[in-house]
TrEMBL record:
This is alpha-galactosidase. One of its GO terms (molecular function) is alpha-galactosidase activity. It catalyses: Hydrolysis of terminal, non-reducing alpha-D-galactose residues in alpha-D-galactosides, including galactose oligosaccharides, galactomannans and galactolipids. The keyword Ribonucleoprotein does not apply. Keywords: Glycosidase, Hydrolase. Signal peptide: none annotated. Its EC number is 3.2.1.22. It comes from Loigolactobacillus coryniformis. It comes from the Bacteria. It is an enzyme of class 3 (hydrolase). GO terms for biological process: carbohydrate catabolic process. Residues 294-371 form the Glycosyl hydrolase family 36 C-terminal domain.
Amino acid sequence: APLGIEMFVLDDGWFGHRNDDNSSLGDWFVNRNKLPGGLADISKRTHDKGMRFGLWFEPENISADSDLYRAHPDWVLGVPDRGRTLSRNEYVLDFSQPDVVDNIFEQMTAVLDKVPIDYIKWDMNRNLTEVYSLHSDSAHEGETSHRFILGVYDLMERLTKRYPQILFEGCSGGGGRFDAGLMYYMPQSWPSDNNDPIERLKIHYGTSLVYPISAITAHVGTSPDELLGWSTSMKMRGAVAMSGTLGYELDAAQLSDADKQAVKRQVAFYKQHRELVQYGTFYRLESPFESNTVAWMFVSPDQKEALLFTFVILGAVQPEPHITKLAGLDPQQTYVETDTNKMYGGDELMQLGRYTTPVQTSDFTAQVHYFKAKD
């Protein structure tokens, strides 16, 4: 809350007796050993700080070490008398069967009816294999995969109608199920577990060709990156994440004082401009697939405001001058670049462009510029 962050999300591990990913999927009750005060206590503490509270679920999968599996081993997708494929230490529930969907619905509502929840991250961390239902006859067995997703949609339909105040976010080991069907129920999705900001330039650029920016969840992660090991500045990570639905996926208590101040500034800046980012017109100016310099921008519907994001992936000792031509502005309008107080004509920025060569020669640099129409 002191950083201005609006919501705290409790991730995997709050349920059953789960201490690693070998157990408890399917047992959606609170782990009292970890949380003696239950979810209600955490929810209250979070709300008392003026923040919202979110919770992680993976409703479609099940652990072999779970009460639900021990009671209903036949509720798992699999071919009789053949081994089932274990992936991420979990199996897939047979959502083609209404009884299975009903059970998960009842477990989830038992939690959500009692605890004030503002957000749910709905995860799905494996592929479907051995798509065979033990409760379907041979004439309809070929329909199992289709009936499975109908069961998923049925659960989503019931939950979103019952809890219209909850924001649901989709996730599937990253962006494995970032599609229009999911977006009918969940207005935003996690596009990839690859959270490195350099890789995210391509991910955001490509995803935005099909989906609106407001649907793309983007988080500032740790540095060095956990997957690639690249070290990037908080400014770089923040600029990439602000080009979507901003969040932070890190231990804020471990941040340096300088990074905490940077986060505070980023959050304040994003709050000031988030309607422009989420609902303005998005222009892809320079592609990360083709250039060392990447650029995109957002323009308000009335063309009175614009945000320009520029990124330089690799630095150079003597970088060549680089000009980025902007788009979507009013050619007759004069704009003030608020961080420098420089004035430009809309036609000038679109036809002649603006220098984007970084002052520093280091790798992975970012600049964000806000343009406002001069009265």
